[in-house]
Design a protein that fits this description.
This protein is an all-alpha fold. The chain has one domain. The chain is built from 14 helices and no strands. The longest helix is centred in the C-terminal third of the chain and has 44 residues. It is globular, with a radius of gyration of 19 Å. The two termini are 20 Å apart.
Amino acid sequence: MGVCDSIPGISGGTIAFITGIYERLINAIKGFSPELLLGMLALLTGKGDKKKFREDLKKTDLSFLIPLVLGILIALFLFSRVMSYLLENHFSYIMAFFVGLILASAKTIFSHIEKHHSHNVFLMLIGLALGISLAFLVPTSINPSYVYVLFGGFLAICAMILPGISGAFILLIMGLYQFVLGLIKDFPARVEYLLVFGIGAILGFFTISRAVSWLFKKDKSKTLYFLLGLVVGGLSVPLKGIFSEISLNGFAITIHICLFIIGAVAAHLIEKIAKK
């Protein structure tokens, strides 16, 4: 998830779906209520109720979240330089691999749908249209304020949790991608911007986890149809990047096709391991 979230056009939420942890992730994030955070702050100031805080903490899925978050953070810090290099020098090859990975993941999402009705297809088409529309957005470049960075963190995390929408791509559209990547590379310099971005991310986690959890309870099949459309439509972003850079010669096309197949096989293998 961490590697994918550092690439514009690729969603970490899709990886969560392939590995079979998506619903657990949503419920685990939802378990972190504002009351729990307030209780933590109260304890730090010496005024909190330790017993109530422990009870609230037991309701969270920390044994799942801690290694997951550590994995994401380690990937972001270790691979930020590597991914920057690969995206600058081998962009279309990287994207070909991930297009195969994501397209194969659409099958995983479809397999989780229990009820198939014709009116659900309409929701899939809405998700598809929303995903495709991302390819027509034009990235901007700005000198961000703290408020803008906060808002960027909020939107990026919401996108990261949703399969098909890349948090990194949202940052790219907002003109914050290189800025945030620079903050990670130069850590701990300008750590105050990372803290502001982190606050926005926490707010995004609270919002999107509750929204998706409510939609799953309301009608899981309809929600999955929409997410399926979003995943397939979101492929328009990396595909646009591939066609803008690919060389029209037999060798380059063959390499792209091979990487696409490797990505699809990788998704299939990950899904099989997840089931075990």
